[in-house]
Amino acid sequence: MAVPGPYSGVSTLAFVARASAFTFGVVYGSIKLSYLRSKAKSHQKAEAKGHH
């Protein structure tokens, strides 16, 4: 096994960029999901009121 030199093939910048992009995606997805859920819930309530 070769001893890794100063450059081991994993750029810190690339790693940080990937990690922050992943984190942003997860946060964005959860916010979007909760928004869509609340929107669907209010839509169901409005539909239920309209039918009665």
From TrEMBL:
Q: Per its record, what are the GO molecular function terms?
A: proton transmembrane transporter activity
**Residue stretches spanning the membrane:** 12-31
UniProt KW keywords: ATP synthesis, CF(0), Hydrogen ion transport, Ion transport, Membrane, Mitochondrion, Mitochondrion inner membrane, Transmembrane, Transmembrane helix, Transport
Q: Enumerate the subcellular locations listed in this protein's record, separating them with semicolons.
A: Mitochondrion inner membrane
Q: Does the keyword Membrane belong to this entry?
A: yes
GO BP field: proton motive force-driven ATP synthesis
A Gene Ontology term for the protein's cellular component: mitochondrial inner membrane
Protein family (similarity comment): Belongs to the ATPase e subunit family.
The record ties this protein, via PANTHER family, to:
ATP SYNTHASE SUBUNIT E, MITOCHONDRIAL, OSJNBB0050O03.8 PROTEIN
Q: What is this protein called?
A: Uncharacterized protein LOC109714415
Naturally occurring in which organism (per UniProt): Ananas comosus (Pineapple)
Lineage, opening ranks: Eukaryota, Viridiplantae, Streptophyta, Embryophyta, Tracheophyta
Its gene?
LOC109714415
